[in-house]
Amino acid sequence: MNPLWLLVPLAFGQSNDELPTALRPPVDPFALPAPAPAAPEQPAPDDGVEANVEDGVLVVRVFGPDAIREARQKVIDDMARHGWTISNRRGDDVMFRGPENWMGRAILDAQGTMSFTTPTASFQSVTGDDATAGSTTTPLGTQSPGGDYQGVSRDPGAAIVPQANFAIYPKKKAGVIHERLLAEVSPELASYRDAVQETAFQTELETLTDRLDALWELGIPLHEGDARIEAISDRRLAILAFWASRAATPQGVDTCKAVEEWLSQVVQPSTDPVTATEQEEANARAAHGRQLTLVTGPG
Predict the structure, then answer these.
(1) Which of 30, 93, 124, 134 could disulfide-link 158, Cβ–Cβ 3.0 to 4.6 Å?
(2) DSSP type of residue 179
(3) What secondary structure does DSSP assign to 202-248, as a single string?
(4) Rounded to an integer, what distance in angstroms lies between the CA atom of residue 177 and that of residue 86?
(5) pTM of the prediction?
């Protein structure tokens, strides 16, 4: 390219794209294309992972539909490694077939529970020369005299009844296999149950403030089926009782924190705040070891 072309845009105070076509420098067909502008950074999506340090130990909890699907697939893969293959699906329930018929079936439900079924017995058809003429034991059908299932002439006075092998499946032996299989896949089953339960808990936690609002403003109880609470003081005590009864678990602590934040933002600024006496009584009943430190009104 002629270097004088570089002076044209400077003379006009314009970029090459803004110049008239006649004044633009010729396009170099061998030039590399300009790199595309970098896409703006997007915020990282919620990955459904929560990590907390509890008693000096890092505890990671995973939740959400993706976490459930991944955990369920790990159980399925583990079952396949032991020879158990999928025979059917019903929603999130998965049915497995054992490596041999006498081992029965396994059912993995949507809650992460594994159960087993074992057939009592089965019939296996026997035809041709193995069929016994004139017998009435475990009949599957009867043909006219003089013929059998392979068209071979027999005693015309005998009815040809194809027989079946009657197999009694050993339930005790199958039970031993089931126990061993459960022991092998129990780590993946536990992870699946944890993902299901944590997802259910996080969903409930997201709605907790709405439920607390409904109780505080309308008297709608936190537990379905309980009677409506009329007096504002009784509503306040019901919320404190709910807080005090949470378990000393990660989920219980998370629930307590959410209630404590809601109390400080909603109840304490109201005309009916938690009193010092009510706070003291709630702290004495707390099963989780946490203590309320609200700015209380007179006792």
Answers:
(1) 134
(2) H
(3) HHHHHTHHHHHHHHHHH---SSTTSPPP-SHHHHHHHHHHHHHT--S
(4) 18
(5) 0.59
pLDDT in tens, 200-223: 999 999 999 999 999 999 999 999
Tokens of 154: 């027999």
Evaluate whether 111 touches 103 at the Cβ level (below 8 Å).
no
Separation between Cα atoms, residue 121 and residue 101, nearest integer Å: 10
CA 129 to CA 123: how far, in whole Å?
18
Query: How big is the chain, counted in residues?
Result: 299
133, β-bridge pairs: 160
User: 198 versus 61: which is more confidently predicted?
Assistant: 198
- For 14, the token pair is 């314009």
The partner residues of 50 in beta bridges, in order of sequence, read 61
Query: What CA dihedral angle connects 259, 262, 266 and 268, to 10 degrees?
Result: 60
Sign of CA dihedral 178, 180, 184, 187: positive
**Average pLDDT along the chain:** 75
